[in-house]
């Protein structure tokens, strides 16, 4: 499994992904699931993947044009004129890779499926955030749905719904994502540290901050322990329940 | 979908279930998913169901021996000598009902599948809590796994993991379950109020408290609103994140 979240804030984009891949619980590995392309002053594009690892690695290789000699590479992702074009390019590649592996043609629950979160900004365009489906089509984040999750999305969703605020600082957004990841990691063995973090500042057209939360990260430990304590104290602060008979 | 939780406390058992059933989002109904049998001084048995409604209703009817004349009914669930016998009886009926509907024989992902939480106490036996699978076999709650969830289990699990305490009062347990249900209801349209609650006091061999949380329950509204506020305040109390560069 996998857990990745892309958040759109008024001040920029925040991405977080785990790094655990597994093929059964007895075959786990660490692979990067976050990929960033940037040309200072022109664009910054981040992509996170969930699903079949062969599929997602093939998509990334194709985006990087790794089939060409290093000198001949001029990948489309660095030439596209808008984020919409990039999403179309990525969606097309994703669909193609899945189809090339699926003997029976494209089916919705193919083993080779993968889902992608794509976000960034190009030139004078707005910052944008997309979720790309295995079928190659995509949806875009909006004011009403300002974040996307892929992979094991459910455990970490309640806190995102409750605490997300489009005006929040980057630091608070990273903290929020760490809490969401902690809930997921606690509940699903196939999601795990290290975590990759990328923070893109709106209109900077620069890489921004890239950061890896290692397995022994002291701040993550603080959050993980502190969140249990904070949740219990929040729970205790709620008004007590009384059985109806007792209130009559 | 459905959400049901059975909690084992040192002082007794607490059950909560929602009442929404759906066959597509355009066909929703309210059905009871919690069923209790009790004979004061002898036994109290509670059963909650998730899955195919035709299957679960058939199991309940068979347990009640509704195929017999009312005067001839003497259901096994009131005669079994231990909770283990009851679990075996229910598991056997469940497996039989599923098999009778599945043309292709028993398969793990059958459309007719259902899962059951069963708990209670009989005579001099201990209070016990079981989860019964569509295959008819079952597992029992223990000190390490003191609660079972069925249906849409993920959204409401983090708070259960963090705040459950075997020593907690019945009132706190109901409050905890309401928070867990609130998170689930907020995230999944197919789980909804009213909620059924049953609290069984250990060694009482009596019905205990049975309660329905209606759609406009003022306490549930308080919990639902208050939990959002409490979560955000718990989040704010956690130590702030700083990017590594800023701490150098």
Short description:
With 248 residues, chain A is an alpha+beta fold. Chain A has 6 helices and 12 strands.
Description of the molecule:
Two copies of one chain form a homodimer. With 248 residues, chain A is α+β, with helices and mostly antiparallel strands. The first copy, chain A, has a single domain (3-236), classed as Aminohydrolase, N-terminal nucleophile (Ntn) domain (Glutamine Phosphoribosylpyrophosphate, subunit 1, domain 1), CATH 3.60.20. Helices cover 32% and strands 27% of the residues of chain A. Chain A is built from six helices and twelve strands. Chain A has helices spanning 53-63, 83-101, 157-163, 170-187, 218-237, 244-247, and strands at 3-9, 12-17, 20-22, 28-30, 34-39, 43-51, 114-122, 128-132, 138-140, 147-151, 195-201, 209-213. In chain A, the strands form three sheets. Chain A has a five-stranded antiparallel β-sheet, with helices on one face. Chain A is globular. The mean pLDDT of chain A is 92. At the A-B interface, α3, α4 and α5 of A face α3, α4 and α5 of B.
């Amino acid at each position: 499994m996998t857990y990745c979240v892309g958040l759109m804030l008024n001040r920029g984009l925040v991405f977080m992904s785990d790094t655990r891949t597994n093929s059964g619980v007895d075959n786990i590995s660490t692979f990067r699931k976050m990929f960033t392309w940037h040309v200072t002053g022109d664009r910054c594009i981040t992509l996170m993947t969930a699903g079949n690892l062969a599929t997602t690695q093939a998509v990334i290789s194709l985006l990087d044009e790794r089939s060409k000699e290093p000198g001949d590479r001029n990948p489309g992702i660095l030439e596209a004129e808008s984020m919409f074009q990039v999403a179309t390019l990525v969606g097309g590649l994703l669909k193609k890779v899945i189809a090339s592996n699926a003997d029976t043609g494209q089916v919705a629950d193919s083993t080779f499926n993968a889902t992608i979160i794509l976000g960034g900004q190009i030139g004078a365009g707005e910052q944008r955030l997309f979720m790309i489906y295995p079928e190659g089509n995509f949806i875009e984040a909006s004011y009403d749905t300002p974040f996307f999750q892929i992979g094991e999305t459910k455990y970490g969703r309640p806190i995102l719904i409750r605490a997300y605020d489009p005006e929040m600082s980057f630091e608070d957004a990273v903290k929020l994502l760490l809490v969401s990841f902690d809930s997921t990691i606690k509940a699903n063995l196939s999601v795990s540290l290290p975590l990759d973090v990328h923070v893109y500042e709106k209109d900077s057209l620069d890489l921004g901050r890239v950061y890896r939360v290692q397995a022994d990260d002291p701040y993550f430990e603080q959050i993980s322990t502190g969140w249990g304590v904070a949740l219990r104290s929040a729970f205790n602060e709620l008004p007590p329940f009384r059985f109806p008979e007792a209130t009559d």
